[in-house]
Amino acid sequence: HAHAHTHSTLLELRGMAEAEAEAASARPAVDRHGFVLDTKDVNGLSRTLSKAEKKKMVSELKRRERKWSKMYKNWPDVMQHRADKVKQRCRKGIPDGLRGEAWKLLCGADVVKTQHDTAEFQAAHGGQSAFDYFCSVEIPESDISQQYVDVIERDLDRTFPHHEMFLQRDGRGQRTLRDVLRAYVAFNPEVGYCQGMGMVVGVLLMYMLPEDAFWCFVSLMEKPSYLFGVYDSGLREVQLVASVCHHLLARLSPKLFQRLEENMLEPILYMTDWIMCVFVKTLPWESVLRIWDMFMFEGRKIMYRACLAMVLSNEHRILKEVPNTMHDLMSFLRNLPVETLAVEKLVPKMLSLELKSEVIASIHAEVLEKYNEIHPPEEPKKAPAKAKVPLTQASPRTLHVAPAEKTQESGDQVKEDQRQQQLKQKREREEKEEEERLRQEKQEQVQRQQQQQQQ
Asked: What mean pLDDT is reported for the chain?
């Protein structure tokens, strides 16, 4: 019996080993960042390095790792007295093996965690950490946040479908992605979930543990220098960033700006994905990582640099080669030639742009003022007054009167909301009519100029 049992165990182990070997052989070949080779996904692009290039790259990598490791040992002092040095090293690129830790430090994730994950919070929630608690929150089917959960489930398969971490349906990568996104919905139900968030969280999960990724994401979402407001309804911040880029483009390349203006090509039409996904869906992976390294230190200014560099790198093609129509220009800008987006070309272009913070701030203020004229900001909602007497303990008189009062208040509020909505729709119609009139005048002016030139 013992011999038979041993034989059975050996067969079982052999079967497990064969299954693991078969699974390993079935895994597709990936590049050094985990992206499946030979896919059309821009993030999977990877070129083969020669032995000399590999040797040089490894040597350079080890040297930079030593520098970053030395900085980690005295991080607060380095940031206080040598911030410019950190900035330069982020621009050169953070070593891949140290990237996760660097991002956490640069965006202040640990500070944000200590603000929220307090001893008092844990004591009030059975000793659970804040992350574990928000992961475990059950959202009722009737709750409005349930719609976010449903969209998260639909988006899981669309998030990095060509990366080994997220290839397997409901594998470890998809499970951790779901956990972090659902935890954020529970943590901040007012913002909830929006497409684009999954790509950002996915990048963080490639470089750190789920809890660290969660607090990094919270930090990015809470700070105006990063992604605060980017995923709010109406996408106000996305429109503002795109509009600021458009105004900066007018200063950097009047001819290119004029070409886009002639064709009524608003920046929001082609920059939305760039901003909401922090370039993850648009650029080759080496360019994404370098931009994220800089973004974590310099914040939103890097968004302006990247958006402008992507357009300006293709200035000649847009002015000389792309047909001068709105459709052709938009198609080109949404599918920029990948060779112009390579890290060795894009980053130098970004850093060569003369962008002063005070100029950006001035343009942003002007754009914001104009935006608020068109879309008046809503007044902050007042918190409902707490009932002095619990409903179950109220007198029959109170129970009888309260619903009537509430109904009257609700009716008045509905009428006021309808009136405001009608005024808003009227303003929007008038603005659209005015914009259309100006566009027609501009087109007629351009046509007249062209006719005069021909004559």
From this structure: 82
Q: Is there a contact between 34 and 164 (Cβ–Cβ < 8 Å)?
A: yes
Length of the chain: 455
Distance CA 5, CA 254 (A): 82
SS3 of residue 36 by DSSP: strand
Query: Which among 26, 27, 47, 6 has a CA at the least distance from the CA of 285?
Result: 47
Contact call for residues 207 and 100 (beta carbons, < 8 A): yes
The vertex-148 CA angle with 146 and 149, nearest 5°, equals 65
CA atoms of 332 and 322, how far apart (whole Å): 8
CA distance 43 to 21: 28
In contact, 312 and 338? CB cutoff 8 Å: no
Looking at this protein, which amino acid is placed at residue 165? M
In the structure encoding, which two tokens stand for residue 353, read together?
């742009």
220, with CB counted inside 10 A (0-12, 13-18, 19+), is: buried
User: Rounded distance, CA 271 to CA 334, Å?
Assistant: 8
Between CA 210 and CA 176 the distance in angstroms is 6
**C-alpha span between 133 and 410 (Å, rounded):** 36
Question: CA separation (Å) from 145 to 133, 181, 184?
Answer: 16, 12, 11
**pLDDT tens for residues 307-357?**
999 999 999 999 999 999 999 999 999 999 999 999 999 999 999 999 999
| Euclidean distance between CA atoms 401 and 300, whole angstroms | 53
The answer, as to whether pTM is greater than 0.85, is no
What is the tens place of the pLDDT at every residue in 266-282?
Answer: 999 999 999 999 999 99
| Site of tokens 């700006």 | 257
